[in-house]
Design a protein that fits this description.
Elements lengths: L4 H12 L6 E3 L3 H20 L7 H28 L6 E3 L5 H20 L17 H4 L6 H11 L7 E6 L6 H10 L1 H6 L4 E5 L6 H13 L11 H12 L5 E7 L2 H7 L11 E6 L2 H7 L6 E2 L5 H13 L9 H9 L5 H11 L6 H8 L2 H8 L1 H12 L6 H5 L10 E2 H11 L10 H14 L4 E5 L5 E5 L2 H13 L4 E3 L11 E4 L20 E4 L18 E9 L14 E6 L15 E8 L15 E7 L15 E5 L17
Parallel strand pairs: 1-2, 3-6, 3-7, 4-5, 5-6, 11-12, 12-13, 13-14, 14-15, 15-16, 16-17, 17-18
Antiparallel strand pairs: 8-10, 9-10
Helix pairs in contact: 1-2, 1-3, 2-4, 3-4, 9-10, 13-14, 13-15, 14-16, 15-17, 17-18, 18-22, 20-21
């Protein structure tokens, strides 16, 4: 996939940048330039073309070729840096990339051919609507009384102008169910007695089917005589059918602004209090439809509401065994307030014996039970990932590196993305600003939630819903993107990126293999883990986060990880010499340092952009900072008047 090409493009741009002072490229420079051109062109085609969904073999070919090129190039970069005397420039002798070039050429030919053929049929549909659960389960609704009241007031309000009413929220949260309750509400039916219509849009929408669905609601069987007409004629018929009438239209599950552009002009503003309700996971789509309209954000259910919904689905109006309440509350709580998940687990429990032992067995792993009982559930949530722009997919998959219910600091996450090479910029914004836009996009698509903001309202940390995180983990494993130690249903096989959440008594060297030598990220959240056996083989790491661990001394082996872009470590001291060997380092976070052990070499690291030192005590002998790329300096408990901050930007550890 195209996102696998961006880190390769970033590396090539670094080497070929004429302002890059540390690399001298040999006479084979044209080969690197050709590789950069091919990778950038292929990425551009993939980003702009609508290709078939079932091209796994082609995606694997692109991914493997990009990874192979990165491995060849960065391995030589590391060897050059480690073998060259300190202070010298590095001579980059172009390795043999001919096989990689051939693989990219082959992939490019296939992609261009597919793009030209436009093999994706316009009428196909993989919409979430086709995957909805048994309607009898979804007909049970709790916790929406206030939502219904607010929305009914908007639909029947006195504003005469045509109003767009957006209902927004993550997949499975109940947007369609809420819209259906409104649509069928007797007071709404009476208010829009002359024209109500419903159409489900989906990702790969069929415009003709949508138009016929709307017309069938408005003009009934008369619609059948228009089945052979084209889209243009049907749009005109729709406009004439609505003209002069007060109407309510529900457009369920909109994914793109393109669809809205195609149909908007065929809903006349009769100045008679007509309304259009749209449901979408994409906040930017809702804003595009009407930037002035307040979005109705559907919220997750509370724990009491979750149990109430589960109880109604399983028992209905029947009496229910009181001994099941405790385990039932736990099961519903483990659904994370997501109505669709509660509906699925409720449907499963309704078919099983109503005994405490059976329910406790389900309660041991609720999310696994949901996935096993209904594969459609995962497909519904996966639609949000599938619809992401290519540049956001690796950023979302990276969320799997963080433990469940973890509060993800925005500043650290951004630096990790940049260190990995995921973020690109056209020069108008800094990489940090672009990455902040990436985060904003994931929030607008209801894939991340803002956990907390700083004092002036800027998001400072985020979290991800547990069930979306499960989707993230499965996708990351399928695409050989990330391996998490001790994650359900994830094997320790994909070693491009590694995250250790718990060692569970397993020795790290048990996994030490040649595959590990290709890892680019290693993130640790287990303080008891001994990583020392690994440092010798992780030579290509770009991101290393060890803040969960405490080191009395800085591990000397880390000084050989010269490909690092991001390093976060909790240690009492930094090495007195040798740290400038990490010549690619962009971000250094070091906590619990002693003030008299801050190496002067830090000020010689020309690529360093973000320096965060948590220092105990004072130091009156810190050198003036002369790092031209430095954007962030944070020194806690450091009271020297000799420090000059070249540029300041808030950074939260």
């Amino acid at each position: 996939m195209a996102y696998n090409l961006q880190p390769l493009i970033t590396i090539l741009q670094q080497i070929l940048n004429p302002e890059q002072s540390c690399w001298i490229v040999d006479h084979n420079k044209p080969q690197l330039e050709s590789l950069l051109q091919k990778a950038a062109y292929l990425q551009q085609i993939l980003e702009k073309s609508s290709l078939p969904k079932n091209i796994e073999n082609l995606e694997s070919q692109i991914r493997d070729a990009a990874h192979r090129a990165e491995d060849i190039i960065e391995s030589q970069m590391v060897d050059q840096i480690l073998s060259s005397p300190e202070g010298e420039r590095f001579t980059f002798s172009t390795p043999d990339l001919q096989q990689v070039m051939q693989l990219l050429d082959s992939a490019m030919e296939q992609v261009v051919k597919l793009a030209e053929e436009k093999t994706m049929p316009s009428g196909s549909s993989s919409s979430g609507a086709s995957l909805l659960q048994d309607p009898s389960l979804k007909s049970v609704v709790v916790g929406v009384d206030e939502d219904l009241m607010q929305l009914k007031d908007r639909l029947t309000g006195m504003q005469s102008k045509l109003e767009i009413v957006p209902i927004v929220g993550m997949g499975g949260i109940g947007k369609t169910t809420l819209a259906r309750k409104l649509y069928d509400d007797p007071s709404i039916v009476m208010h829009f007695e002359y024209a109500r219509a419903w159409a489900t849009i989906s990702q790969d929408y069929n415009m003709k089917a949508i138009l016929l669905s709307l017309l069938r609601c408005i003009i009934g069987k008369e619609c059948d005589q228009h089945n052979e007409k084209g889209d243009g004629e049907l749009k005109d018929i729709l406009y004439r059918s609505l003209y002069g009438r007060r109407y309510m239209i529900v457009l369920d599950d909109i994914w793109s602004t393109k669809f809205w552009d195609e149909i908007r002009m065929y809903f006349p503003d009769n100045n008679n209090r007509s309304r259009i309700v749209i449901t979408t996971r994409e906040s930017d789509v809702a804003k595009y439809a009407d930037s002035k309209s307040v979005q109705h954000q559907v919220q997750l259910l509370s724990e009491s509401q979750s149990w109430d919904l589960l109880r109604q689905i399983v028992f209905g109006e029947e009496d229910w065994p009181r001994e099941l309440q405790g385990i039932g509350e736990k099961i519903s709580s483990d659904c994370g307030g997501l109505p669709l998940a509660i509906s699925v687990i409720g449907g499963l429990l309704s078919k099983l014996e109503r005994s405490k032992d059976v329910w406790e067995n389900i309660g041991n792993n609720v999310r696994a039970a949901i996935g096993e009982s209904d594969k459609q559930f995962s497909n519904i949530l996966s639609l949000s990932y599938n619809h992401l722009p290519l540049h956001l997919k690796p950023c979302f998959l990276y969320m799997g590196a963080f433990p469940e219910d973890y509060e993800i600091k925005a500043s650290r996450l951004i630096k990790m993305w940049i260190g990995e090479g995921f973020v690109k910029t056209n020069g108008e914004k800094s990489l940090d600003e672009e990455a902040e836009d990436y985060l904003k996009s994931l929030v607008e698509r209801n894939l991340l939630s803002v956990k907390r903001c700083n004092w002036y309202g800027k998001p400072k940390s985020y979290n991800i819903h547990d069930l979306l995180r499960d989707v993230c983990m499965r996708k990351a494993d399928d695409e050989k993107f990330l391996c998490v130690k001790n994650a359900p249903e994830v094997t320790f096989s994909n070693l491009r990126r590694m995250s250790f959440h718990t060692s569970d008594g397993v020795e790290v060297d048990e996994y030490a293999s040649s595959e590990m030598s290709l890892a680019r990220s290693c993130v640790v959240y287990d303080a008891a883990l001994d990583l020392s056996p690994m440092f010798g083989i992780l030579s290509l790491l770009r991101v290393l986060d060890l803040l969960a661990m405490v080191f009395s001394e800085f591990p000397e082996e880390i000084l050989r990880l010269v490909n690092l872009r991001y390093l976060a470590i909790d240690c009492y001291s930094l090495p007195s010499s040798g740290i400038s060997r990490l010549c690619n380092l962009q971000t250094l976070i070091a906590t619990n340092l002693s003030d008299d052990l801050v190496p002067a070499e830090l000020w010689e690291m020309s690529e360093l952009r973000h320096l965060i030192l948590d220092i105990e005590g004072d130091d009156d002998h810190v050198k003036i900072i002369v790092l031209k790329k430095l954007q962030t300096l944070r020194c806690v408990k450091l009271s020297s008047s000799d420090i000059w901050v070249v540029s300041w930007k808030e950074f939260q550890i």
